[in-house]
Structure formats: C-alpha cells, structure tokens
Amino acid sequence: MSAEYATFGLAPAMRAGGVLSNGDVQVHRDFVDFIVNGRPLLFQLSDLDAVSPLAADIPPAIFTDHVRSLLMEAEAPLAHGRYVIYGCPECEGLECGAVTAVIEQAGDGGDDYVWRDFAWQTDERVDLELNGYHGIGPFRFDGAEYRAALGQLLDGAAEPVRRRRVLLIGARVALLAKLAAALRAIGIGAEITEDASGVSAEELRTYGAVAFGRAADEDQRAAVRAQFEQAGADPAYVEGLAPIVPLLVAQIEAALDRSPQEQRRLTGLVAADGEAGLEVTSTCRVQLTAYRLDRLNRARTLEVYDDTLGPGRHRLSLDRAATKGESFLVARTTGSVLVAPMAR
Fold first, then answer.
1. Fewest CB within 10 A of the end CB: N or C in the chain?
2. Is the pLDDT of residue 257 over 80?
C-alpha cells in the first residue's frame, strides 16, 4: 500500500491521574502527542490508556534520545525498524503492550518520513495479521515539516507543560494533608499554606493550579490571586466542591488539563434533575462516579455508569441513590476527567 501525504504536528497532552472508587490510584502523566491530519493519533487507533514516549517526567537525556530516535538519528529500538509510538502509562515495559510502527525514509529518493505497519506489540516479535491496526496508515510526512516539529522539542520550544504542582489553601489542615498525600501518590506535587505571601515569584510560577477549600473566604482568595498575578503566573483556580478527597483530586486534574478542546475525548459534562449530559469527541470508555455527603457529613461513593460511548452528545439517567442531597458527578475517560455538581 502506498503512503499518502499526511500533516504532522505535536501538542501537549495529559493522561489524567486520580483516586479511583476502589481505592487504587491512577498516575498522572504529561506527554507530547502526535497530531496527524489535525487529530491526535492516539484517538485514531483505539480507546487506549497510553502515552507517547515523549513524556514530561522522564530524564531530559532520555527524552532527547526518544526525539532523535523518531528522527532516525539512532537505530530503531525494536527489531525490523519498529518504534514505540504509544506505551503503558504506568511503566515502560513492552510486556504491558505498546503501539509500534515502522518508521523509515520514503523509498523514492526524497527526504520524507513514512510511518507504516501499526500494530499492538507485547514482545520482540509482532504479528501484523493478528495484531495489526488495519486501516491506519501508512502515513507519509513532509520531511521539512516533520523535522521542524520534532526539532522544537530539542531546543525546548515545544516541551510538554511541566507545572505539576498544586498549592492547597484552606483551614481544614487534616483534609488538606490527606489531599496532598493523594496528589503526591499520583505524581503531582502539592504544598499547603494559608496564603501565598512571602513566596517568591519564581516559585509561584511553578504551580499549575491553586485549590481553595470551602473555608477560604473571599478576601483570602482575592489576595492569593493578586499575588500570583503580580508574579506573572497564571495557574488554574479550583474552588473545592466538597471535603471528599477523590472528588477534589478529580477537580484538580480537570483544572490541570490545558489541552485544546478538540484534542480531548471528553469535552462536556452537566448533571441536573437526575440525568447526566456528556459530550464525547471519539469512541471511548466513559466511567461516571457519583459522590455525595450524607446527613452525618460522611462521604458516599457510587459507580453509576461504565460503558463505551461513540462521538456526540449523550444523556444518561442516574440512579436516585446517586443524586440524594448534595451530590457531584465525575466523568472519566482514558485521557481526561470532568466534574460537575448535581443541579436541581
């Protein structure tokens, strides 16, 4: 099959971390995704929980090695000229499975690059008939465009967002300590304070988000915002919905996602009158979890939906048990998370 020309680009992407309803944690990963013909390549393959090798949290030398490898300035890491395009977000082991492809120079004497024979690979050998992504590629990328995009990574002009630190502000120290521990467990740095006075502008610029507890009053919030503004920082601000740690983690994860709407799988969530409304851009598994506080102010959790949805808008009826009193809904896909209070 001849390779047709396709556009090639790069964009920051995120694999949302979180504290799951069963108590497990899902690690947060920032990475650079491949944009092919204007759309994330990951979305074109299948509903995979995966990240590219160009992850923000790997050592700079290894990051550079991955970029040079994609530029074919080093030998392919796998047999038969195959390269890892997406791998497990929790580890780098091939045994967990990875999307691989052959990367080569176009065979007609030009300087274009071709990506072909995409496959799911779990060991050194790959069976294209059994595990190939039929109908995906081959893609032919203009050599100059391809090298320019990857070259920006080498000079730092297009590195993924690395501000995975959150400042927690509030009066309930015990709750904030639990929240900070949960964030650190999924790979996000977190510090606790009552205000940001005395913190250097350089340090303030390292925070990607500021989360306010319910007890933080308007004057306190305004003062913190002013301090960040004076420092030239633009963190996302999170107003804590309820003292429920997994819910707050989901809110912070949603705030840290700065990717364009068109590069997300989940772009909309509303919850009202016992129903959830979702907007999905590509076929993916969607999980809905409801959180609420009971009359004794205890947190209650209920899994309300877990299935695959196609692109478009969807309305889902919710169990009445999930919408009692003050309740909140978290929608999670393989790459993103959104949070909405239940409106009445």
1. N
2. yes
Q: Average of pLDDT values for 309-324?
A: 90
Written as six digits, the tokens of 103 are 């990367």
C-alpha–C-alpha distance, residues 331 and 303, integer Å: 10
User: Pairing between strand 337-343 and 236-239?
Assistant: unpaired
Give tens-digit pLDDT for 62-102. 899 999 999 999 888 898 999 999 999 888 778 889 999 99
Give the pLDDT confidence score for residue 3 in this predicted structure: 78
Q: What is d(CA 10, CA 173) in angstroms, rounded to the nearest whole number? A: 41
C-alpha–C-alpha distance, residues 208 and 167, integer Å: 8
Name the amino acid, one letter, at 210: V
Please say if the pLDDT value at position 209 is more than 70: yes
Query: Would you give the DSSP letter of residue 51?
Result: B
Q: Hey, what amino acid is at 273?
A: D
Would you state the pLDDT for residue 109? 64
- For the question of whether the overall pTM of this predicted structure is more than 0.70, the answer is yes
DSSP 344: -
Instruction: Report residue 286: phi and psi, to 5°.
Output: -120, 130
| CA 151 to the chain's CA centroid | 23
**Cα separation, 288 vs 341, whole angstroms:** 13
What is the spatial distance between Cα 56 and Cα 63, in angstroms, rounded to a whole number?
A: 8
CB–CB of 32/12 below 8 Å? yes
pLDDT bucket at 344, cuts 50 / 70 / 90? low
Return the H-helix or E-strand segment holding 107: none
Phi, psi of 219 (to 5 degrees): -65, -45
Paired tokens of 268: 């909309």
- Please report the pLDDT score of residue 1 as a whole number: 55
DSSP three-state, residue 11 = strand
